[in-house]
Amino acid sequence: MTQPVQILMCAPHHYEVDYVINPWMEGNIHRSSRDRAEEQWHQLYEILKEHATVELVEPHPGWPDMVFTANAGLVLGDTVVLSRFFHPERQGEEPYFEQWFADQGFTVKTLPKSLPFEGAGDALLDRAGELLWAGYGFRTELDAHPYLAQWLDVEVLSLRLIDRRFYHLDTCFCPLTDGYLLYYPPAFDTYSNHLIERRVPADKRIVVDEVDAVNFACNAVNIDHTIVLNQASDQLKKTLVARGFQVVETPLTEFLKAGGAAKCLTLRVTEPRQASPRATAIQNRIVHFEGHLLDSGLVNRALDTIVAGGGSFQVLNFTLGEQRQDVSTAEVKVSAPDAAVIEDILGQLVDLGAVVQSEDTADAHLEAIVQAGVAPDDFYVTAIYPTEISVDGRWIPVQAQRMDAAIAVTQTADGPVACCKLLRDLQVGESVVVGSEGIRTRRKDTSLKPRSSEEFSFMGAGVSSERRVELVVEQIAWDLRRIRDQGGKAVVTAGPVVIHTGGSEHLQTLIRGGYIHGLLGGNAIAVHDIEQALMGTSLGMDMQRGVSVHGGHRHHLKAINTIRRCGSIAQAVEQGVLQSGVMYECVKHNVPFSLAGSIRDDGPLPDTQMDLLQAQADYARLIEGADLVLMLSTMLHSIGVGNMTPAGVKMVCVDINPAVVTKLSDRGSLESIGVVTDVGLFLSLLVNQLNKLTGEYAAPV
Ligand code: ARG
Question: Is residue 92 part of a domain?
Answer without folding.
Answer: yes
